[in-house]
Amino acid sequence: MSTYYAGLFADVGILLLGALSVYIILATGQLSLGNAGFMGVGAYLASYLTVELHWPITAALLVAAGAAAVIGIIVGFPALRLKGIYLAMATLGFGEMVRSFFLVFEPMGGSGGYRGMPHVSLSYIWLWAGGVLLLVLVLERSRLWLEMRAIHDDETAAGLVGLNTTAIKIGAFGFGAAVAALCGGLFAHHYVYIEPGNFGFDRSIDFVLAVILGGSTVGAGALVGALLLVLLPEWLRFLVDWRLAAFGVLLILVLLTRRQGILDRALIARLTFRRSAA
Amino acid sequence: MLLQQLVNGLTLGAVYTLIALSFSLVMGILSILNLAIGELFMLGGYLGFALIAAHLPLPVALIGGMLGAAVMGIVIEKVAYQPLRDAPLITPMLSTLGFSIILQNVVTNVWGSDPLQLPTELFDTRIPLGPISVGVMQLVVIGVAVALVAAVAFLIQKTSAGRALRAVAENRDVARLLGVSAGRVTLLAFAISGALAGAAGVLISLHYAAITPYIGVDTGLKAIAVMVIGGTTRVWGALLAGPLIGIAEVLTIAYGSSQARDLVVYGLMILILLIRPQGLLGGARTDVGQRV
Questions:
Q1: For the packed helices B215-230 and A201-214, what is the interaxial angle rounded to 10 degrees?
Q2: Reduced to 3 DSSP states, what percent helix, strand and coil does chain A have, rounded to the nearest 5?
Q3: ipTM score
Q4: Among A31, A111, A249, whose Cβ lies nearest the Cβ of B102?
Q5: Residue B6 to residues B125, B132, B134, B138, B254: CA-CA distances in angstroms?
Q6: A237 part of contact set with chain B, CB < 8 Å
Q7: Rounded to two decimals, what is the model's pTM?
Q8: Which of A44, A42, A106, A87 is CA-nearest to residue A69?
Q9: pLDDT per residue as tens digits for the range A141-175
């Protein structure tokens, strides 16, 4: 594989993790527009551990994920009061706060950025990305996921049949934050340089876009979305200056024609020659 | 110079008020976040800039910017919102995002990605007022913002179109049963919202005498914060929150660090969402949905 494609597939793996972090939270009906904030926490924490304390990368990633999960739970609790677009705006605010915090946080370089991380290989990135994707796909067949979907569909009814909606919603936030932190840690060690601007609103939107484009009702949708989001602008390169506009047009077209995303359960069933259950 | 900073903050706040009003018109009626408003603001700025650069007077530039952005607002409603009206909230939000990607790319290709600058002597006259001085452009920005807000207030409160807007915001289905054309009202909301964002763009580009294609993202996000702080359920909250945030931001830069200003603004936004989700001016009834 050429270095060019290796770079692209590293991006796909990193974006896949970010998309999955949104997907997990979205499965409980909560839209987060601030996952780049969790990604930033993961990136900075993991980098600090490997550069300043000389930890091995895997240990650093695990600790960063754990710490982000705790932050996710702390953010999740007050977020329980908010729904829909209000939750989206609150998480947007959280993401921007994390970005501006790292902008003023001089010990890690402030606006000048932070460097010196050891580089990670493409296969290492995909070990994590594939592993988390597999975990989500397995989780999707569990009873817990059914409970998450129930809260997504009707929170009041789910609470009435005895589900602990608080624990499940908070748990999803924590899990999503941990996955976003893994994404950030791998991003930092792939690019070996980070700056607060890497973790802004655009990044959060990329994650959400990948999920919505790929398919927001199935975990594999995040993979399709991540592939599309990275490769499409490359394939449109012949349009030179207009490729972003073309990408915007394609995005709107997909949303207009397949609002559940490219991949959904019916399509998967057709592709695997199984009779659709739904 | 505290007083001088207050004047500067008010100018910035007036622009925030206009964009926040633009967000909350669409949000209040349809409860969707139109993420292209930041780019409508940027587009209005470029149109106004082009007209001024062609030696046309300021009112023409202002109207040109407003019209251009309003027409684009209507296009966005037709293409990105109308067909997705009954989809989940995220879908129309992302299709408006698609528009913002397109607009930014088109403007970058037409006018280039480098900042455009106006000859500063055009609006550089300053009026000394005791210990401080007020730029003529600052007065224009504040004056136009006040006039536009008054015009929107009149439109919403006194005209039949405004009554239709309020009716749809209150309850879309009942309003339709009573003969209000919800489709036309939606279109109107997008058009006014676009015009306000366009006006804000013209004002800010003249105020700074410079503009870049990337100005929309930051200012747009900031305006969402302003809308939330003022209260999404009451359009007029932006009147209070705009100047408040403008002044807070200018004071943070003057007496703290310029990097910390976003921390203050978004921190305030989250605080408001958690403590008073209805916003500073909102009533106690958050359970009844959006209102104008």
A1: 90
A2: 80, 0, 20
A3: 0.85
A4: A249
A5: 19, 10, 11, 12, 11
A6: no
A7: 0.89
A8: A42
A9: 999 999 998 998 888 888 888 888 899 999 999 99
